[in-house]
């Protein structure tokens, strides 16, 4: 599976302890939380270190992803809605997101319900690219219905 950066996705790491997995990540935080698990094979994507995000980015990262595949991608977003999909404020990460979506069979977006209808600069994924949305129970029923109509299975956390 691919675990992208961000605190929401990094929070998943505790649920994967003692599981036999291969984890692909560009996140130093995810790597740090998973590296000591003896049953997990870690693949840390290379690239230029971005201190602000504590992750690796750039053409090296994207090129590595083109050689890999995963059953699942877990990603966060800066904003989301049923019309535009899932968005980020990190324009320089768009190519990384695209590479991840190509590499993964299933896409799981993990986004706090407070980011619904928020504003962000760039689309990382249209609703058609996403299989699952994990969000808070506070996500309004109309939004849940709209995402479901777009073919996304909505899970409350």
UniProtKB/TrEMBL annotation:
Every DeoR-like transcriptional repressor C-terminal sensor domain range: 5-135
Source domain of life: Bacteria
Coiled-coil region list: none
Name this polypeptide is given: DeoR/GlpR transcriptional regulator
Organism: Candidatus Caccousia stercoris
């Amino acid at each position: 599976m691919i675990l992208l950066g961000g605190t929401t996705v990094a929070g998943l790491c505790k649920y994967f302890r003692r599981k036999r997995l291969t984890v692909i990540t560009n996140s130093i935080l995810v790597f740090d939380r998973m590296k000591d698990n003896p049953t997990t094979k870690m693949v840390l994507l290379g690239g230029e270190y971005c201190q602000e995000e504590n992750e690796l980015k750039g053409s090296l990262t994207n090129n590595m992803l083109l050689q890999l595949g995963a059953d699942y991608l877990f990603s966060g977003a800066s904003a989301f809605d049923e019309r535009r999909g899932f968005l980020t404020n990190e324009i320089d990460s768009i190519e990384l997101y695209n590479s991840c979506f190509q590499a993964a069979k299933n896409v799981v977006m993990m986004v706090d319900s407070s980011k619904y209808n928020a504003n962000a600069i760039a689309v990382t994924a249209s609703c058609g690219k996403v299989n699952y949305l994990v969000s808070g129970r506070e996500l309004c029923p109309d939004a849940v219905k709209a995402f479901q109509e777009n073919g996304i299975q909505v899970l409350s956390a």
